[in-house]
Amino acid sequence: MTTTGPTTAAPPAPRRAGRDLERGLVGGVAAGLADHLGLPVLPLRIGFVVATVLGGLGAVLYGAYWLFLPAAPLGDGADRAGAAPGLAGAARDGRRPRGLLGRPAGRTGDAVVVGVLSVGIVLAVEAVVGRGALVWAVALVAGGVALLWRQADEVQRERWVERTERMDPVGMVLGSGGWAAWTRLALGAVLLGTGLVLLGFRDGGIGAAREVVLAVLLGIGGLAVVVGPWVARLVRDLGDERTERIRSQERADVAAHLHDSVLQTLALIQKNAGDAATVARLARAQERDLRAWLFAEERPGSPGAGRGAAPDTLAAAVRAVAAVVEDDHGIEVEVVAVGDAPWSERVQPVVAAVREAVVNAAKHAGTGRVDVYVEVLGGAVDVFVRDRGAGFDPDDLPADRHGVRGSIVDRMLRHGGTARIRSAPGEGTEVRVHLPAPDEQAQQAQDADDGVGSTDAAGRGAQ
Amino acid sequence: MRVVVVDDHHMFRTGVRSELAAAPAAVTVVAEAADVDTAVAAVERERPAVVLLDVHLPGGGGVEVIRRTQTTAPGTRFLALSVSDAAEDVIGTIRGGARGYVTKTISGTELVDAVGRVADGDAVFSPRLAGFVLDAFAGAIQVAEVDSDLDRLSEREREVMRLIARGYAYKEVAKELFISVKTVETHMSSVLRKLQLSSRHELTRWASDRRLL
What we know:
heterodimer, A: 463 residues, alpha+beta, 5-stranded mixed sheet, 5 strands, 63% helix, 8% strand, elongated, B: 213 residues, alpha/beta, 9 helices, 6 strands, 54% helix, globular
């Protein structure tokens, strides 16, 4: 059991305790204290529970800490503030681990906190006063306050997470919680009101109860009139400050990205100024990366393509494949996509086939440019890979050319699609890959051989 | 052919000027402009055949230049030349009245070719632009609300757009569909007209909804 004041600071730099909402089970008090004191969490939690059972002191202490300790920002604030702007930017982007993982307490947390606090306070009051009706009234009041406070916690946490909008007074109370927040708020208010009425009843009749409630309401109203303007100004100032903070964070993110990518590439280009092919390749890769970064909102999935994360749509996957071939073979691959489909096992062989076709074009066509056109209409996928290079006679393919036959034509057949190759010497090559819509495909699959298990593995291997 | 180059980056204007000068075709840059006001003034003064127009300009953007010179310089045609290939920019500029849209990575000879086509009254569709147009008519791009029957693409026009999007040259499209190059150009011009028409219809509807007409 810890009774040392957590806010008494160590001399050099004032360390301030906070509640850790990310790791906390109830309100994050124990987790926050453990962090602050450098102790493991479990003994602290056990201590609180034991103290609660023995006379309710634990619950009272917990409640007090909850009242007075602020919620700590997400992640470790001190760690992040000290980091380089690039690292901080990457962390905000989700490209670096947060350090503290685990979901915050969910709905169960509410129930637990209400339970613990109510029981503790009931026990404590019963031990002191020993009166039935009063105890239940106080319990109801305590439950109501706990629920309201819990809601305030949620809002506080959301404020740390959310980075865009200015805060508004309604948002300060409700956050973006929706019905859950409203329910919690209403339930808390009802509990509070019932508790107050019960308290009034105890002293004598309905009149007294009404007076008590009225007095409390009047008191709250008066307080609102007095404090209201001040709160409003505070909200505005806070909003301004937060906007400023967001702006500087964004500036840091941009600076970090430009440093990582553009400056590095320009340095490389200066060093390779004599080598036109390398310069072109670097410039192309950089342009692609910068576009993906700048227009990330417009093309979901494409930022992942630049950073090696898994693409989440078919078009993004094709773009990623094209980017790799561009870099590896020093050619230009223009991808035009009309419509899109979510990434799935179904479209995976299409991407593998397209990759093979683009690589073939890069290797054998002898031109610097390949056009890839992806079209998704009504679930059916069509991809055309075209070059204007040397071309060949499709009927005259050597038997050892597995790339075309195995990786493109047969793969598509095995997965219920088709692939056709149109080429003539001197006229370039076009590979057409077609995958029918899922319902069409299911019908075809009924009378087709089932070789999916092995081909899936092959397809993944080719990726 | 007399050409005006509008771009707010001096370096880029210089680059375009030197690339056009190196091309064998007779393309002369008669004026340069860096923002909407100077561009409008230059177009009205010079009456060029083609304006190479950047999409993002100080003072209102390329569409603003087209809007303000449409009546004062009726013979002038606009070819958008932008680094942006965001769908909103591309479709928005075409709907504003540009006859084509090429990105800044285009080579000098391709650019001269595109300028020539636009000057002749044809539309210039890069594969990417064709893709955006198909998307717009399929309703996938929000900027295009193409709802009346009049504005739908015919089967043939769609076919032409698909081939352009696949990287076919006009000649190859003609060969593939067994039609003449002239017919291909006619189809593309009508696609362009439909695209611009749908935005004009939208504008009319918007105005009549608000009792402005």
